[in-house]
Amino acid sequence: MWTFNLKGRVALVTGGNSGIGLGMARGLARAGATLAIAGRNLEKNAAAARELEALGAQVLTLSADVRQEADCKALVQATLERFGRLDVLINNAGTNIRKPPQDYTLEEWKTVMDTNLTSAFLCSKAAYAAMVAAGGGKIINTGSMTSIFGASFAMPYSASKGGIVQLSKALATAWAKDNIQVNAILPGWIDTDLTRQARKEVAGLHERILARTPAARWGDPADFEGIAVFLSSPASNFITGTALTVDGGYSAQA
Hints:
Elements: E1 10-14, H1 19-30, E2 34-38, H2 42-54, E3 59-62, H3 69-83, E4 88-91, H4 106-133, E5 137-142, H5 155-175, E6 180-187, H6 193-201, H7 205-212, H8 225-232, E7 243-246
Parallel strand pairs: 1-2, 1-4, 2-3, 4-5, 5-6, 6-7
Helix pairs in contact: 1-2, 1-8, 3-4, 4-5
C-alpha cells in the first residue's frame, strides 16, 4: 500500500545495531527506506549493515556518543552528506543500571538519564532543520513499560523513560506546524541482550513477566517492524504526541 511505502525516505536509527532498534530498522528496510544506523559497537554495526543490505536497503553505519551534542549533530550531518536528506529519526539508544535507589551514585544516574533521555532531545534538536528542509518528518522515541509503571530496581531508567513520553508530547506540539510528527513507543518485556541480563540479575523476573502478559510470551524485536513502518509513513500523518504500547497486553491487565 502506498501509505506504508518508504521508498525515497531516509531514516536515522540510534541504537540500531541490535535488539528493538534493529527490529525497527528491518521493518523500514523492507518498506524501502534508506538507513543510517548509529551504534558504538563496530562489529554489531557491520553485522546489522549486512543484514539490512540483504533486505535491499542502502545502509550507512555510524559510531557516536549520543550523550554529546556535537556527536548528535555529526550523525545528522553524516546522514545528509551521504543521502542528501533526513525524513525519519528513531531515538532508540538506551542503557540501564539495576540496583536499589539508595545505592545509585550521581554518576550512574547521569549515565542512564543522558543515554536514554538527553540523547533523544539532542538528536531531535539536531534533526529539526533537516526535517524542515525536507518538508516534514517523523520522530519515534523509545520509551518503556516503566514510562507507566515504576521499577524498584531501575529508578533512573524509569525516570528517563517517563521523560521520553513527556518529551515526545512537547516536541509534537512544538513542531506540528513544521509537519513533524513525534510519537513514543512503549515496549513491554522484549527478548533482548538488555533483558537477558535483567533475568540474570532479578530473581523470578521471567516467571512474573509470563504470568502477567496475556500473550504469554516475551516480545521479539520483530514485533517492532510494523509499528516502526506505521509511525514513519504517511499512514500516521495525523498521529502525533502519542505513546503506543507494544507489550502483548501487559499494561492492559490489572
